[in-house]
């Protein structure tokens, strides 16, 4: 048991963040989700993912529909309120556009060396 309140609060925040990441993953993948991908993305064991999913089912964030996990309305609201809904989990797609990037021109290293 953690007795330091600051550490306990940090643990709760990390778990909440992981739940939001799971919601985002399920939103992107839909019924084609893979538990091992969730495990790998979060850096958890299968047991750790199982515990998180059970908590999310109990909280009403997820529901089983024909043996497939689905996000509930409550889960959708949690995702929207988190600000993570626009986060892109797909590593193959670019999140920024070229027009969003600032490219330095005529940068001189000599200027900063003395």
How would you portray this structure in words?
With 114 residues, this protein is mostly helical. It has one domain: Arc Repressor Mutant, subunit A. 50% of the residues lie in helices and 7% in strands. The chain has helices at 5-29, 35-42, 46-59, 73-82, and strands spanning 62-65, 68-71. Mean pLDDT is 76; it is low at 1-10 and 91-99.
Q: So how many helices?
A: 4
Task: Bin the strand percentage.
Answer: 5-15%
CATH architecture level-2 label:
Orthogonal Bundle
The CATH H-level superfamily is Winged helix-like DNA-binding domain superfamily/Winged helix DNA-binding domain
Main pleated sheet = 2 strands, antiparallel
**Portion of residues in helices?**
40-55%
**Estimated radius of gyration:** 19 Å
- Principal-axes shape call: globular
Q: What name is given to the CATH topology? A: Arc Repressor Mutant, subunit A
Order of helices and strands: HHHEEH
The average pLDDT value, as a whole number, equals 76
Strand element count: 2
């Amino acid at each position: 048991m953690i007795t330091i309140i600051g550490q306990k609060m940090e643990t709760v925040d990390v778990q909440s963040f992981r739940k939001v990441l799971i919601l985002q993953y399920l939103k992107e993948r839909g019924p084609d989700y893979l538990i091992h991908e969730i495990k790998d993305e979060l850096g958890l064991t299968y047991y750790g993912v199982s515990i998180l999913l059970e908590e999310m089912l109990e909280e009403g964030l997820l529901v089983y529909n024909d043996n497939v996990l689905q996000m509930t309305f409550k889960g959708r609201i949690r995702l929207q309120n988190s600000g993570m809904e626009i986060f892109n989990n797909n590593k193959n797609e670019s999140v920024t556009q070229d027009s969003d990037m600032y490219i330095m021109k005529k940068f001189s290293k000599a200027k900063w060396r003395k």
